[in-house]
Amino acid sequence: MSDQQDWVRIEREFDAPLQLVWQMWTDPELFKQWYGPNGMSVPTAEMDVTVGGARKICMAMQSPERSMSMWFTGLYKEVNAPHRLVYTESMCDEAGNIIPPQSMGMPDDFPDITEVTVELSEVGDKTRMIMVHVGVVEGTAGAGGWNQAFDKLVVLLGAQLPVGG
C-alpha cells in the first residue's frame, strides 16, 4: 500500500480581486497566458464555460532539439461563478478524440479521465484558491506543473489593472 494520495491539492492566496482570478480560469485569452508549466505555451484554449460545455487545450513546447504538443479535453461539470469550477480532463488528439494517457508517456496506472475542482473565496482584498486535481498524484511532475503555472499566474495578476475601478 502506498502512502501517496491519488490527488494533488494546492492552496494559494492571490493579491487580486476574486472576479479577476475567476476570469483567469474562465476567459480563454487570459487562461492561455498562465496555464502550463515553465517552458510551455498554450496556443489553443477553447472553453465553453457552461455546465456540460466542452474545453480543449493545447500545451506546446518549442526547443532547438524538438517541438512537442499535448492536447487535453474535458467537460465542465459545475460552474458557480465566481466561486467554484469543476471540470474533467483527458488527454486527446488535436481533433479532440480521447487518447490513452500512456500514449503520451504517462504511467500505466494514470487514469483516462481526471477531475479538477477550483474553489475561490475572498479573504479581505485578496483571493484564496483551493485547487484539487483528482487523478494526478501528489509529488509527481503533474503536481509540479500546476505549481509552476500558479507561479506564472501570480506574476500575471500582479501586472493586471484592478477590475471594476
Structural summary, described in words:
The chain is an alpha+beta fold and 165 residues long. The protein has a single domain (7-158), classed as Alpha-D-Glucose-1,6-Bisphosphate, Chain A, domain 4 (2-Layer Sandwich), CATH 3.30.530. It is 21% helix and 40% strand. It is built from three helices and seven strands. A hairpin with a 2-residue loop joins strand 6 (114-123) and strand 7 (126-134). The longest helix is centred in the C-terminal third of the chain and has 18 residues, at 141-158. The radius of gyration is 16 Å and the shape is globular. 21% of the residues are buried.
Summarize the structure.
It contains three helices and seven strands; from the N terminus they run E-H-H-E-E-E-E-E-E-H. The protein has helices at 18-26, 28-34, 141-158, and strands at residues 7-14, 41-47, 54-62, 67-80, 84-92, 114-123, 126-134. The chain is globular.
